[in-house]
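Hallway conversation turned thread

IA: we were arguing at lunch whether anyone had actually written out DNA polymerase alpha subunit B end to end. Turns out nobody had. So, for the record, here is the sequence (560 residues) and right after it the structure tokens. Reply here if something looks off.
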Amino acid sequence: MTDPPVEIMLSNISSELLRVLSGNDDDELFRTLREKADAIGQNKKKLLELEDWLMNMISQASAKGSSFGKILYPEISQYARNIKSNVDMGNWNHYNIYKGAQCQSGMPIVGIKTNNINECIVDDSLNNVVDYKTSGSSPENIAMQINNKIARFQNLFIKFARKANKDFQITPVHESASNDLCVYGRIWCESEIQINEHNILIEGDYSNSKGKIAQVRNIENMPCICLFPGQMVAIKGNAIQDDFSFRYMASNIYTGIPAERPLLHRPKETSLMYGGENVHIMVVRSLLITENGDKVDFNGVFKKIKDEAPHLVIFMGPFVSARIISFQSQNFKELGDLISIYYKFIEEINTLSLHSNTKNTKFVLISHSYDLCSTHPLPQPPLNSKSTALANLITSDNLIYLPNPGYLRVNEVIIGITSCDPITSISRNMVCRPEDKALNLICQQLLQQRSFFPNYPSSKLPSEYAIEVNKLRHLEFPSQYLPHLYLFSSNYKKDPFVEIVSERCFVSVFSQSQDSWSDSKTCSVASIFILPPKIVDDNNEETSLLLSDRLIVEAGLFVK
């Protein structure tokens, strides 16, 4: 008999027991044990029941001199100890969130079982947010930046229209009353009230429209629409002017810039990066301190990372949230006590990166707008930028600090990441139909508005996140690289979710709701598996990326 593995986990106990039991078919106890081992799966309760039954049977069989006890006792006693140790430490509960069409048969492979980790490319060169000095957000400055954004998107819309062979002659807002014209601008709403079908305004730029506004009507007759303050739109219809107002009777509203279908440019070369196996990405909710001041135990998460060795692990903030920490708390007398928590966590990641299983894994840290250690509004420079307390911390070469929002290229897939919630603030102040398609329509607007935060800057209503208006363009997706996969956390839904828009994938990896900030015994992760592209007849011609067909998303919850 070979020695058992050093660590027995829920993920391997069933197969390891079956290995030990192979070749013992003539004993009823062996057959019963084999059935029980086969039924374990990821079920903690069944595992504990098996352990109790197993030790009882070994004791009885050994007393009787049965081969069951003689053959298995030395090895199974070690299994039992490892089972008990594993269960005491906590338990992972996993459930599937999404499976693409190409993934319906078979199971994804965790990183440690793949042979392609050295060929997998993880590139962070798409990021260009570096440390900067924040400036004041005067009304004049906000107005100027809004004007620049309107002008920029108007030019993008004109280019799109020409490429699509559509003749849109843009007329300045409020210029003349006539039929069948097109105006471009920003959705706006007077006063600090909720937007509705009857109070929607369009604001033009200063260069052409002198910042004028006009009412937009006929929204109630549009069966599919998603409008919110800050949104860039083109409105086609008739302009009407009377003694009371200037308004547009909209016949059509073009919200943002439609995205082209994502393409796979070099299928053969890309396929070699995968070697016929999937890529494994793990995203970790990395709240280190609860609202009660309790430290969160990440040992279960670190063990999972060592056991599975993903190609890429993303730790998503807030790590220590300024919103939930009371500096008067008896647990934290000084700011340095809190900064030391960052230091310790990063040191643990450094140690993790040196483990034999994970020495080729890439680790990524992305902060949150609420993070205590980051003094910047959105867009946030990386957590180790020179203005933070972590600037001089020496870290592993495998550790990447991303700005927020940030971007990665994993093989051919471009990933856009923010630790903030881009969905909920839009959903709270919008006109959207049909209501059951609201989430998909919001994700569509993130894509067509080219930003995780298309409703910023807010000129009236208070904003959830502070932004640096002079860096507004850095909140937009890279102009030459629209992401294929969008990762964020949202409390729009209690559970993680996936939405597919124009062959692009929007994934909320976990909730950032306030309720989830008080539990120090629960850790959330999401596992994302990307299968290799299918190559037909050794073809290397440009083809569809089809990421949504190749994607698997699983959620994991560790309960101690």
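OS: looked through it. The two ends are 34 Å apart (CA to CA).
IA: good, adding that to the notes. Residues 1-6, 84-88 have pLDDT under 50 and may be disordered.
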